[in-house]
Structures are given as structure tokens and as C-alpha cells.
Amino acid sequence: MKNWVSLLLVGSLFASCNNYKLVVMSKGEAKINAETGSIASTDGAGHTEQSVATSSKHWTVESPAGKAIFDLSEKGLYVVNAKNDTIIGSYQNYVSAEKAGQIISQEMLAQKLDSLKQLAEGKNVSDANRNFYILPNQAVRVTGNVDAEIVGPYHKMTSAASKNGETPEVYRFYSIKEIRETIGKLEELTSPVVK
């Protein structure tokens, strides 16, 4: 019985050690030190994502955008922007049956365009809407579920399989450049045809 109680205590201590998971997005590989709570990134090549489970609440980030300090307020999954560019994201239901094979009307395109324009300006962003506007050197809590999936900029993921009959919790992030390019394409699709 004593061994069982000891195992439970050790297991609960281990589980509580890493209350936070950070997904660090940078241009080139960032140096992450979970013990000191520091992230250092330079302006390298390509988009990079690194994950770290941690118990550290207090963090510093040094990137091409400068230096910043942030604290993790609640247990959960955080996205850290260590790039010199804004990152925008939202929850995605990739396994929704009603979205499969759906025909998109001009009205739906116009709504999507309006929504993207608001997101690109940092408007209508809230926890309730499950969308995010992350400036350089900021960390944002995305969800309390540290096992949720984060899909970063420049990935082409369009679907996700359900696990054990449950819809996976997936958040898709884009660079501000990708959002502006998408807005441009949608504007072309929603423009009236001139003959």
C-alpha cells in the first residue's frame, strides 16, 4: 500500500512539473533554455517551430524584434512569436462532415474575406472566437489542452483524422504575409466580372 501511495505522489508531482507547453515560432532555429526560461532567435532562414514542455512561468525572448519578458498565466498550450512578423491563427475543425465537399457561394467568400480583413487588423480577436493575433515577441495562451495540435505558417494541412471518435483540437496559424496574399486572391474571386 505504501508503494502504491508513493507511486501516486511521484506521478502527480511529475505531471504537475510541466504545466505549460510552448510552441516557439521563429525564422531559423531558436535557442530555448527551459531551465532559465529564455528564448533567443536570430533572423535565420525559413520558418521553424519548436516545442518545449516546461514548469517555468517567467520567460524572456530575444529576437530580431528586440527583447521582451512575459509570464505564463495559466496552465496550457502557448504560441510564442520569436519572428519579426505578426502571426495570425484560429481553431480549425478539419474533420467536420458538413464541410466535406461543400460548395462555397459568393456570399460565403465575401464573409470569409471580411473575417480575414478583420483578423489582419487585429479586430474581432478573442478567446471566445478562438482566434489569435500574435505580435513579435509575444506569447499567447491558445488552449488549456497541452495536447492540442498547432499547425504553423507555410504548412498545407487541410484535414485531420479523429482519434478515438473525438474531433482533434487543431489551431492553424499563418504569417501576416500569407493572410494578405489570401485576401488578395479572395478579392479577385469576389470582384464582379466586367465585360
Main features:
four-stranded mixed beta sheet, 12 strands, alpha/beta, disordered N terminus, 195 residues, globular, 3 helices
Nutshell version of this structure?
The protein has 195 residues and is α/β, with parallel strands linked by helices. Helices cover 24% and strands 33% of the residues.
Unreliable residue stretches:
1-16
Question: Main β-sheet, in a few words?
Answer: 4 strands, mixed
Major β-sheet strand ordering: 4-1-7-10
**Helical percent range?**
10-25%
Question: Topology as H/E string?
Answer: HEEEEEEEEHEEEEH
**Count of helices?**
3
- Give me the secondary-structure category: alpha/beta
* Mean pLDDT over the residues: 82
Tell how many strands the DSSP assignment holds.
12
Beta-strand percent range: 25-35%
Report the end-to-end length measured between terminal Cα atoms: 84 Å
- The Cα radius of gyration reads 20 Å
The shape, in one word, is globular
